[in-house]
């Protein structure tokens, strides 16, 4: 993905260089109308190509954010803004030249018409009216050129607004993702704490079970000893009011006291 957007970036830079070179050659063709119109047609084709490549660049930029991360996306986003500004500046420069060329055509056309009229008729007959009509025509053309420029600027502003909306949406998405990550981390910590509590409870339950098992074995041993007459007779009796643990301890003490020395 990075290779594709890099190729598009180089393509835009190349096209802008071609446009720059053609614009620099236009002043030399200001009075050569045919060559000038041919060069302007070439420039219009190059501008159309630049806009198409830039649109593809914006589409690839979305994929860069998904596959390469925020840092790489920001770098190519900044490069895209520079390309957009360069294309816009070159377009404004071309429209400005067109307006200047129209004014030159007006002056040249008016002078030629006046000279032809002087050669045919009296110098004060129609020269002024023709110049005025030509001036009105060129003025209308200049207004149309200004309208085209305003339309182009409007498109540029619309693209900029769309870019801002896209950036805002992506920022909100990143913020939502960050909140989800924080929530997941909190849930994991809570789960870890609950697991530790359960482990402590299990350990306590095991200890209690071991003590109960020892107590049970002691009681069984006393019963077996009593049934088999293994206990000495005439010894101290066990108080039945004692608890099982206390009775076991008392019996063990009695056995120890009565056992013969080794």
UniProtKB/TrEMBL annotation:
Name recorded for this polypeptide: t-SNARE coiled-coil homology domain-containing protein
Membrane topology: Single-pass type IV membrane protein
Molecular-function GO terms, alphabetical: SNAP receptor activity; SNARE binding
InterPro entries: NPSN/SNAP25-like_N_SNARE, T_SNARE_dom
Record keywords: Membrane, Protein transport, Transmembrane, Transmembrane helix, Transport
Record PANTHER family: T-SNARE COILED-COIL HOMOLOGY DOMAIN-CONTAINING PROTEIN, VESICLE TRANSPORT V-SNARE PROTEIN VTI1-RELATED
Domain of life of the native organism: Eukaryota
Signal peptide positions (record): none
GO terms for biological process, alphabetical: protein transport; vesicle fusion
Residue ranges crossing the lipid bilayer per the database entry: 207-225
An example Gene Ontology CC term for this record: endoplasmic reticulum membrane
Keyword Transit peptide: no
Residues of the T-SNARE coiled-coil homology domain: 136-198
SUPFAM superfamilies per the UniProt record, alphabetical: SNARE fusion complex
């Amino acid at each position: 993905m990075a290779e594709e957007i890099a190729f598009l970036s180089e393509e835009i830079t190349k096209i802008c260089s071609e446009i720059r070179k053609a614009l620099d050659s236009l002043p030399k063709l200001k009075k050569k109308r045919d060559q000038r119109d041919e060069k302007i047609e070439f420039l219009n084709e190059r501008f159309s190509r630049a806009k198409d490549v830039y649109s593809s660049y914006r589409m690839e930029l979305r994929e860069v954010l998904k596959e390469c991360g925020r840092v790489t996306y920001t770098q190519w986003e900044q490069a895209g803004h520079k390309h957009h500004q360069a294309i816009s500046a070159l377009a404004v420069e071309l429209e400005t030249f067109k307006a200047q060329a129209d004014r030159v055509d007006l002056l040249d056309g008016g002078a030629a018409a006046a000279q032809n009229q002087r050669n045919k008729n009296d110098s004060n007959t129609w020269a002024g009216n023709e110049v005025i009509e030509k001036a009105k025509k060129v003025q209308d053309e200049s207004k149309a050129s200004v309208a085209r420029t305003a339309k182009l600027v409007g498109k540029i502003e619309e693209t900029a607004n769309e870019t801002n909306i896209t950036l805002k949406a992506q920022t909100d998405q990143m913020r939502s993702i960050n909140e989800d990550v924080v929530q997941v981390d909190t849930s994991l910590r809570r789960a870890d704490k609950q697991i530790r509590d359960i482990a402590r409870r299990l350990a306590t339950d095991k200890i209690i079970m071991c003590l109960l098992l020892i107590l049970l074995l002691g009681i069984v041993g006393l019963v077996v000893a009593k049934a088999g007459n293994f206990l000495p007779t005439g010894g101290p009796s066990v108080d039945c009011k004692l608890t099982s643990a206390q009775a076991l301890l008392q019996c063990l003490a009695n056995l120890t006291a009565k056992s013969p020395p080794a």
